[in-house]
Amino acid sequence: MKESQLIQNIRKYLATLPECFFWKEHGGQYGTAGIPDIIVCYKGRFIALEAKVGKNQPTRLQAATIDQIRRAGGIACVVRSVDEVKEIMNNA
């Protein structure tokens, strides 16, 4: 599976959740480098999801951003499946 397909599957799942607002962060010259792929507000919780497939790992900048979000009290995770996202959302 490609990362883009994983992101699409995650977005489809998130769209089924009541009280869930999310967007796909787009990179490029107008985006902020290191921001996780999907930003979520769910029942008042800030959640950032960085999608990776296979053995791919976050870049140093992505890992640093995830750490900053966690230190600020948000939830930030690297996810490799919709099932992982479901678990995160169930515990949020």
CATH class: Alpha Beta
Order of helices and strands: HEEEHEH
* Cα separation of the termini: 27 Å
Alpha-carbon Rg, integer: 12 Å
Strand order of the largest sheet: 1-2-3-4
Q: Overall pLDDT, averaged?
A: 95
Summing up helix and strand content along with how strands pair, one would put the structural category as alpha+beta
Helix fraction by DSSP (H/I, runs of at least 4): 25-40%
Strand content: 15-25%
Overall shape: it is globular
Number of strands: 4
Q: What ranges have pLDDT less than 50 throughout 5 or more consecutive residues?
A: none
Work out the count of structural domains: 1
Instruction: Write the CATH architecture name.
Output: 3-Layer(aba) Sandwich
Write down the CATH topology.
Trna Endonuclease, Chain: A, domain 1
Total helical segments: 3
Largest sheet: 4 strands, mixed
Which key phrases capture this entry?
92 residues, alpha+beta, Trna Endonuclease, Chain: A, domain 1, four-stranded mixed β-sheet, 3 helices
